[in-house]
Every structure is written in C-alpha cells, then in structure tokens.
Amino acid sequence: MQSPLRLQEMIRVIRSARTQGEERGIIQRECADIRAQFRQGDNGERSHSLAKLLYVHMLGYPAHFGQMECVRLIASTRYSEKRIGYLGAMMLLDENQDASLLITNSIKNDLSHNSQYVQSLALCTLACMGSAEMCRDLAPEIERLLRASNSYIKKKATLCAVHIIRKVPELAELFTPSARSLLSEKNHGVLHGAVVLITELCEHNPGTLDQFRKAVPELVQIMKGLVTSSYSPEHNVAGISDPFLQVRILRLLRILGHNNDTASDAMNDLLAQVATNTDSSKTAGSAVLYETVLTIMDINSESGLRVLAVNILGRFLLNNDRNIRYISMTSLQKIVQTDHNAVQRHRGTIVDCLKDQDTSVKRRALELSLALVSAVNIRSMMKELLIFLSTCPPELRSHTTSGIFNAAERYSPSKRWHIDTILHVLTTAGGDVRDETVPNLIQLITTASELHCYTVHKLYRALVKDISQQSLVQVACWCIGEYGDLLLKGECEEIEPVQVTEDDVLDALETVLQSHMSSPATRGFALTATMKLSTRITDNVDRIRSIVSIYGSCIDLELQQRAVEYNALFKKYDHMRAAVLERMPVMDKNSPGHTNGDTSGEIKERHLQCYETYLFQINAVHLNFLLIKESWTKNVSWFPQKYKAEMQKRCVYVHVVLTETVYEKNGLSLKIQCDKQTETEVTVTLIGSNSAQNDITNFTLQAAVPKSVQLQMKAPSGNVIPAHGLGQVTQTVVLNNPNKASLPCLFLCLSVFLTEPVSTIYVQA
C-alpha cells in the first residue's frame, strides 16, 4: 500500500494534475487515506491529516468528515495539535452545527491556560464562529481578560467582545466599564480594539453616548499624538502613522459629535489640524482625509471647517485614481444642498469629470452637475450638459434628458430659451425622453403665444430634416396642426423666413403617416394635424379629405376609428368642422393631461394628442359627444370649456347626486336612486316623469362604464312618458364590480324629443 503523501507533496501533485478528472482522482485517494488515519486513533499523524483536509476544503471539495477530528485535536494537550484543531474549527464549523457546542468547554479551559498563545487560539476561534449560546457562556471570561495585564491578550479579547455584542446585544453592559479604561493603553493594537469596541457599544446602545462623550478629550489627544508623532517603522504606512487607528478614531468621533455642540467643539481644532497636515498623495493619507471630511460634515462643525472639507473633496476630484474621484463626488452629492456655495467653487472640475472614461464616474458627475444648476449658471451649465448628452453612453441618456428638462423648467431665463433647449434635446435624444415630455412641451408652447410662429417654423424644419425622433415628430405634428396658418404665412421676425406652401406641409405629414419609423401614436398626431389643417388652408381641402378617407380602412383600429370620425365631420357635420377644429385653448399645467412626471393611467398620451381626438361618436339617430369613452368617464370636468359651450347648444350637462332629482326642465323630471349597493354590485334606478302638456316620445337611455366593470341594463318600462304626470318611465341599471375596483363615474345618455328635433342629456352619476 502506498504511503500517504505529506502536505507539501500533496499540494505539488494536485497542482500538477492536467485535467479536472485527474485532480478529483487525487483528492479522492487522499481523502480515503485521511479517513484511514482518523480511524487509527492517536498515532501522531492526525494533525498532519487534518491540515491536508483543510487544503482540500480550500479547493472546494467536501471535508465535513473532519469536524469531529477538530473537536478531538482542540482537546489535545499538544500545542501543535491544538493549533490545527482550532484552525479546522474556524474553517469547518459554524454556529449552526451541533459539533460547535462540543468545543465550548475546551475554549473555556483554554481561556484560563497559562500560555498566552493557547489563550489566543481560543479567543480567535470564539470571535470567528462563536454562537449566541457560546457567547453567553463565555462572556464573563472575556470580560476578565479585558482587565489582563498582557497587551497581546487584551487586543484579542476586545475584538472577541465586539463579536459577543453583535451576537448578543444585551451583553453590551457587561463590557462598558472596561472599554473606557482601555483607552489609556499605549499599545496600538489594544487602542484599535478599544476604539472598535466603544464604537460598537455606541451603535448598539445610544444610551452610552453621554458616558463615552466624556472620553472625547482622550481620543483627541491620541489622535494628535498620531498626527504629530515622528517616524515609527512599526506603525508607518506610506508616511502616515497608523492610518488604520486614525480612521477608527475619526469614525468614533463622528458618532460622539453628532448633534452635540460640546463634543463637536472639543474636536474642531483636531479636525482642522488633520485636514491641514495630512498628505493626500498616497492612498493611506487620502483614506484619513476622507474620514476627516465625513466627520466634519456629520458633527456641528464651524462653517470655515466645512469649507475646508469641501476643498479637500475638490482636490480629490483631481486625483488620478478613479475610485477616489468617485467617492469624492458621492460625498459632494450628499452635502450640495447644505453647502451649495462651497461646492459651486468646484463646478468646473466636476463638469470635467463628465468626460471621464468610466461610466460610474460619469453618472456621479452628471448627478452632481444637475444638482449645481441654478438661475445664475443655467446657460453655461446647460451648454455643458447638452454637449455631454450628444456623447454620453446610452444607459445615461434617459437620466440626462430628465435632468435637463427639470433644470430648464425650474431655471429657464425665458420661454424661448426653454423651448429651444427642449427641442435640442428632442433632436439629439428624442428616443430616450420620458413619456410626459410631449405633453409638457405642448403645454409650454400653448402658453407662449408670442412664440407660436417661431416654434412652428422651427419644428417644421426639424420635421423635414429628420422623422426618426418620435417625440420630436409628435410635437411638430401637433404644432403644425394648431398653427399651420402661421407657418404658411411665412412671416416670422425671430427666425429666417422660409416660404412654405400648403403642398409642402401636407407632403411632410404624409411622409410621417407612411413612414415605417412612425409609431401608431405618431401617426395619430399626424392624421389629426392633417385634419385640423382643413380649416387653416384653402386650396387643398380635397387632398386632406382623400388622405383621411384612406385611413378609414387602416389595419390599426385606433387610426381607423379616428379617420372614420373625421370622415363623418366632412360629410354629415361639415357645418361644425370649423368650430370643432379651431385652435386649442391654453392648457392648464395642473390638468390631468399634464403629468409633470407623475403618470397616472395608460391613456395620458391620448389626452394630449388633441382634446378633440375623440370628440364625436356617430350614431344613426343623433350625434353623441364622446363623453362615454375611456378617460372621459373619469373626470368630465376636464373636457375643454370651449367645446363644452359648443356642446351645450345641443346638450344639457348635469352632475348627479345619488337619490336626488338630477334634471328638471320643460316639464321633464329625472330622478336617480340607488336601490342596492354591495362591495361587488350596485343597482341604480332612473325615474322619468313629465308634467308638460305633451307626451315625451322616443325616450331612450344609454350608459357606459370601464372595462373592469360589467354593465347590465334591464328593459325600460316604456319609451313614452305621459303628459300631466300621469305616468313614469323607469329603467334599472346593474353594475357588477367583481374585482372590487374603485367605481368611477357612470355616464347616462338620454335622448328625448322635446321642443327641438333632437335633445341629448348627459348625466354623470
């Protein structure tokens, strides 16, 4: 039988394996030998076998069968075996395994061992994998060792105490008295452990803050000693005396000085000294300065000290290390609102970071640049942001466009500048803008009446040049439809005049309609614009009628319905076409159509394609204005006032309060009552009576609800309401709401013959 390999030889053989299969074969043979060695008992080779198994574990192969061997070696009296046993316990055991409980007694015994190295093994193991139960059992032993005279043991005991506090927070009070006394130690390892322990105590128990704030002068003196100390080879790192301890002390001072004037005043001079004297040319110095900046910004520091901290971050922006530039901008982003003027001094350096090759640095620079935009620098900053937009990575374009829009809306010096900026963005990155950009720009254009001529000329030129940017094309089509007459006049003082004919405009819109790049929504804009031009031009109305009729059989149902309705305007309701297609009123920015970034519902785009997009629904008997479709059922008050006035020439619009009289005129009285209401069903009855001299004939009722609600209309009691109140007509409507959605308004359309040939009454319930 081949003798087992020694550890070094096994490592060499495994590394020389040419394939994964060959390596697995070697591991299997060695594991079999290791198991055999474990079964032979105490033969002096157990520690070597366990060491080999730990290497196998490091390679990712199963090594659980060595757990009990760890327990046996920990209980051994030989230091060499105990050392491998503790190492194996830290690697193969964790607090969730029962085997870990078997070493509790061994650890307790070793904590009282007369050898500091054995005590050290026990402390390291407890700090690494001690469970909550082990921590409760051994906490008194750890507290005892905190008061030991040996600095080597104290250092490890403090870190073990930190682990116990994290596992069992209620044991924190046990270590509070000893923690303060550890600050008097001269050993840097003990000091480091003491600062970590105090930090942990303060974070887990804010009640101890007042107690440890009394130690701020001691911490300040320790920190000053580190800053002003001469060269010490034992603690020096790149010219900085023990930067690890300095960073820990600064973090603790940040906790103790937060929202406390006394503690903050005690550390102000120290922080100024550290910020001034620390060399930032090396990574160690940059780490200390960064922690100093965070401490200054988090305590109640003086204003001059805060400016000094911002200047340090500004120097970081010039560092060649991208990581340092990144954390600098991250910190500046957090303080830009409170120290805006101080950060503004570094605006040029921040803007230069937009040209960095690293995308994460670019993102931080973009966020910080947007935060620095103000009314004073809006023009210069916007110029830089627009340059960045033209070259930025695709994943940053959406964020960039949104930031530019928000800044322009907040700080724009004029409406023309605002419009020009948004059009520039749409031209550069129209495919990356958010959905609400189109309605927001339309709202802006409608309010700038003095710029209508300038805007429509500029948008027309952009449309002719490029139709790939859908958002730009939609706005251009809308403006051409609204202000096409201004475009055809060719009289614009603010832009170089260009003579545009009716055919030119229609050719541009037809190009949009026929382009494969146009989305259905964009085609809807173009078709509506074409229809509206029928009242703004004189010679090409027949061409417009032909274009509209073509899309009456379009495969896209949305476009088809729109074309059919527009065709009806040309044929049956041509006398109303001019009134319906006149210019839109100025949009209220707070109207449901203007989202300003807050999108609610999937139909906002339709709202702003034009208010009159769905104004009509053709019926064989009469004209029903489309108040019974989609969003109109949600808030009829949003319907434009100018079209309400036109509607009221033929219609009466009333708001219904349930269980009350909703209409009473010319002898006709309408009442609505709620008969039954549950979570999923509402039953409503409409009652009509007639006190006039003549009977009311052809009385009909129509209703519409959203798709989420099921409508069931019972048969009416009749279609004639007798005169003189001699009878009534009733009809029951049942609304089923299986999804328990919020019930919107119900619109009822009643057609009756009164004194006019047709009278339509819209009732909102």
From TrEMBL:
GO terms for cellular component: AP-1 adaptor complex. PROSITE patterns: GAE. Pfam families: Adaptin_N, Alpha_adaptinC2. InterPro entries: Adaptor_Complx_Large_Subunit, AP1_complex_gsu, ARM-like, ARM-type_fold, Clathrin/coatomer_adapt-like_N, Clathrin_a/b/g-adaptin_app_Ig, Clathrin_app_Ig-like_sf, GAE_dom. Residues 655-765 form the GAE domain. It comes from the Eukaryota. This is AP-1 complex subunit gamma. Belongs to the adaptor complexes large subunit family. Keywords: Cytoplasmic vesicle, Golgi apparatus, Membrane, Protein transport, Transport. It is a peripheral membrane protein. It comes from Cyprinus carpio carpio. One of its GO terms (biological process) is vesicle-mediated transport. Its main location: membrane. It is found in: Cytoplasmic vesicle membrane; Endomembrane system; Golgi apparatus.
